[in-house]
Each structure stands twice: as C-alpha cells, then as structure tokens.
Amino acid sequence: MLSSFLRSFVVSRPAALVVVAFTACSALQIQIAAASDKKHDMDMSCMADMNGVPMSAMGPSMEAMECHMYVTPLRPAQPGDEEKAKAVIEAVKATMEKYRDYRRAIADGYIQVNPKVKQPQYHFNNEAYGREADSHFDPTKPTSLLYIETPTQRFKLEGVMFTARPNATEDELNERIPLSVAHWHKHINFCGAPADKTAEYHGAHPKFGMFGSIHTKAACDAEHGTFMPTMFTWMIHVFPFEDDPKEVFSLNDDVAHVR
Q: pLDDT, tens digit, for every residue of 17-64?
C-alpha cells in the first residue's frame, strides 16, 4: 500500500509539484498490493531519519520507503502534554462518531483517494480542511478520514489524519499534538521521473518515487528527474479506539486499529 504518499494533500502547493505528484501517484498505483507483501532490498546508505523509531514499527508500507521518511524525535514530557493529547483524542472520537457512515463524510466534503484501487486502508481527504490545517489546528476537522474494509462492512472508520504545512517547525507541531506523546512524519528526498522513465516507478527495485532508490538531488539530476527535498505535508495518524495507548498514534497503516 502507498499509505501516506497516496493520502497526502496537494492543496496550496506549487503547480509543478502537483503535476509531478499526480504523475508519480498514478504510475505507482500498481505497487500498492506488492508493497504490503514485499519490500525492495534495503539500501543502507539511504536509511531514513527515524529518530530512534524502528522501521519495523511502521509496517511494510512505510518500511518500503526507508529512503524517504523523516519522523520527529520524542521530546521529554512537559506539564500539560498528556492532557493536551487526551483532549485531541476525545475530539477525534466525537468526530469519528459523525463519520462512521462514509456517506456522511462524502456529504461533508471528504473525497476518497484512488477509489478504484483496493487498499488495506482507504483515505478520504477534505481539501478545505487541509488548507485550514496549514495555518490552524482544529481537532474536529481532520484532513483525512481513514477507513478499512471488513468482511461485513465496505468502509469501517478506524482513525483520522491531521496535517500541517510542509515548512511548519517542530515547535509548531508540538503545540498541536505534543512531541513527547506522538511522532509526526513527512516524506523526503522524492525524485519524480521524467516522462520517458515513468516505467521505473514500478517493479521490485524502483528507481523513482517514494519507493525509489534515488534519494539525493545529484542522483535525481543525473536521471533528469524532479527532486523535492520535502514532499507534501507534515502528517500524523490518530486511532483513538486502540486498546494500547502506545498505538493511538501508530505509524503502522497495515494493521487494523479497530476491532
């Protein structure tokens, strides 16, 4: 599954980024299932900056992007951090009650990403809320709603995703959801393929994109690609009905977070 890459927003971003992002997204769709089952060989020279978070904690989808991830480090706990996080969780629970029926989400402006592609987790994005999130945090207005498919239910709501503008500082993220409690993440070192090399998004050893071996500007320039040091927005997932408090802000999209 392409996980965070596919569900990420392109609102309020430069036009060139939008074009490259959607070209890459379209070309990579066939890898969604394969990414969950098989990760390409790890290039030890391009390990992501995980700040102590083991890649195995992220599941195969994000683990397959080891060259292209940055995760915020945990900070020492400060007075009020736990209470602030709990307030966000309670707000998310209330919002999720409203959107257990995905049709209500659609009516309120959430649009399913890649509706023709079967995925372990389905993302419904709200463009207006994504724009608001660039400058203001409202825990009742998540950028994305995260659904899974069960044997008896087409879309079962398991959590939400909040975003922040790409150049937000970690202090700003900490004000939204404390970094002593949870990890925010973003995608980095993206090389968009030139038009004549889009086939190299595919296969067990892709060269371009979020699963690609190219992770430096020099290597991307050599292949006539489009290099982006940061791709899309800051992101954080919230799964408020997890039994284990450590899983409420899980980075693993490949397991169900509701029973």
A: 333 333 334 333 334 334 433 343 444 455 556 777 766 677 777 777
Instruction: Parse the chain into domains and list their residue ranges.
Output: 3-247
Percent of the chain with pLDDT over 70: 79
| Contact in structure between 199 and 190 (CB atoms under 8 Å) | no
- CA-to-CA separations, 245 to 80, 85, 158, 253, in angstroms, rounded: 17, 11, 15, 16
> Tokens 């659904």 label which residue?
147
**Residues sharing a CB contact under 8 Å with residue 200, sequence separation 6 or more, in sequence order:** 193, 206, 207, 208, 212
Q: Model pTM?
A: 0.80
The alpha-helical segments, DSSP class H, found in 38-134 are 59-63, 81-98, 102-107, 127-133
